[in-house]
Amino acid sequence: MTKFRFWKNIELPSWLPFVLAGLGAILYLIQAVIYAHTSVSGLDEGSYLIKGMFYLNGVYEPFEPYGPLTNKAPFAFIIPGIAEYLFGAGLRTGRYFSIFLGLLTMLGTWITARRWAGNWLAALTVWVFALSPMIIKLHARAVSEVIIASMLAWICVLVVGEKRPLWQIVLGSVLAAVAVFTRQNMVPILPFLVLYVFWQHGKRAGIWAFAAGSLALLVFHIYYWPRVMTIWAPWLPESLTPFLDTFRIPTDSVPIWDPNIDFWNRLNAFFQGIRYHFIPLLGSVFGLILLPPRAGWKSAPAMRAAAFLAVSYFVLVLMHGWASLASQYESYSCVFCFSNYLGFFDPLGILFFVIVFAYAWNQNPSRAMQVLIVFLVVVMSTGIGYSLFERVGNGLLNLPIVPRLRSSGLGFIALVDALTQGFGMSLVWVKRWVSSTLGFILGAGVLFAVFLVWKREKKTNFTLTLVNSFLVVGFVLSPVLHLGESSRDCETDIIRDHEDLGAYLASIIPPDSLVYWDGGNAFTPMIYVPQARIFPPQINNGYTFHVGGDPDVLYYSSHWNGELDQRWRSEADIFIIEAKRYADWMDFLTPQEFQEVARPNTSPSCNEGAELRIFQRLP
């Protein structure tokens, strides 16, 4: 067994990286379980779980007219639905299954990293996950990001390497097709994988990969044809594909979800994504900058693997960055989803960074590349600071550090007073300025420290030392830099509360009752009431609500409007209302027509006003 030589005279045992990797996995698991029990359930999680349960139990079919909105490829719902079908429907099943997939993601990344870069760098990949609280928090919820991440990690295990068995290449290609049919935004991964197989494994393996992946994707589409086109029609120009209009959302109505988010908040979302995925994203960016010429690679297969990972990773990052930060696509534009979207392909970024670091970390970058790296260190530090402006508290703002001449002599005033009164800044911009300045100071500090080392030790490579130091500082500070976003949402046990609330709802809602839901964005509590009937478009809450339009056409497409809302209010037997929304219902839910049942003892969230109030129509 190979051993790692630390400095020049200390030889570390070969078993140590395995122990460190195991400890990292344990730390990851502990954090994931804590987040699973304390994170508030959101719209996506409730949507995936209840739709998956409906599809597996045969209540509805994917893409069924007048059924739940299948706005993602079907396996995004069916995969968690399988877990619910086998182990019981509920938030506990969904979240524990997601943690299992997160562990598989980490294991697959570790296996591939070890194949290319050895035990120590493989152990590092485990700790990238273990020290990234927001990645763990994402993996601890029943959402599709962790499903895709686990698939991509195991595609790399099966295919990305030298002399991979043909059966693994075929299986990896089928898994790539499954990934596309889990989230349609993964569509680039299959052609990129097939091209890599041709390049690395030869013509015969490439033909098999193309045939297996294409056949699997074709079979999936045939099974759900033609309604499957509802997930692809929005991607295609309407003027060129008018024959697909029946699969598009009608244009004679206006969705109420039409966010108007300014440039500065979009910039905030961009740097949040970098902060949450520091090593996968910035490690990959620096790896791309430091790529040497082809002759500088120690291994041609490593170069091919890095090329596949880089192209796949950066194409997916750019696609999702454009969709979330730059565009207003459909009615589902979600600017602050950018950081979640990056969770789809973290394994690709981590593996690209590891392979480049192990095989081709360019020792002599050009002067232009050196300047670019210095620029990125300063800008990224400042931007990460900017994205933390909401965490700037009164203690920092009220520091009396700004000098001011007074009649009694030199004095000091609070920083916030100096900026608001002296420069006319709003409080939000004061916080942004302060947090950005702190980020700039941290980046400049790293730059200055590396400069001093370089001046003292002329043999030191300034550029590489700067990159490595910046990545190490960010890596070590990752749990700190996430601050409030990595803290627990609640101190109560959210899983237990959902189970208690679900049991109560199941006990008071008669079988076959028609339930109107206005109990919050997350439909999660209704998972526990399988005997009830619902209005399927309400699963996606206001994101599918339109102003105007033909109600039957909208309902057919799993959307709704005010006319449908009024119709459903007249039909429903049970109304579940979030406490903070009750003021809008007081005129409708009159004592003459409705009876309020005893309020549940538990709430689906620890947020103020999230308690549920339940009303039953009187006979």
| End-to-end gap | 78 Å
Q: Which term fits the overall shape?
A: globular
| Weakly predicted, low-confidence segments | none
Domain count: the total is 3
Mean pLDDT: 90
Q: What class do helices, strands and sheet pairing give?
A: alpha/beta
What is the beta-strand fraction? 5-15%
Strand order of the largest sheet: 7-6-10-12-11
Query: How much helix is in the residues?
Result: 55-70%
**How many strands appear in the DSSP assignment?**
12
From the alpha-carbon coordinates, what is the Rg to the nearest angstrom? Answer: 27 Å
Number of helices: 22
Largest sheet: 5 strands, mixed
What tags apply to this protein structure?
8% strand, 619 residues, Rossmann fold, 3 domains, 56% helix, globular, alpha/beta
Structure description:
This protein is of the alpha/beta class and 619 residues long. It has 3 domains: 25-359, no CATH class; 381-486, no CATH class; 494-617, 3-Layer(aba) Sandwich (Rossmann fold), CATH 3.40.50. It has 22 helices and 12 strands. It has helices at 16-38, 43-57, 75-87, 91-130, 133-139, 144-159, 166-180, 189-201, 203-223, 263-276, 278-289, 300-326, 338-342, 346-359, 367-386, 394-397, 415-422, 427-456, 462-481, 494-508, 551-556, 562-571; strands at residues 4-6, 10-12, 254-255, 400-406, 409-414, 514-518, 533-534, 545-547, 560-561, 574-578, 594-596, 612-617. A hairpin with a 2-residue loop joins strand 4 and strand 5 (409-414).
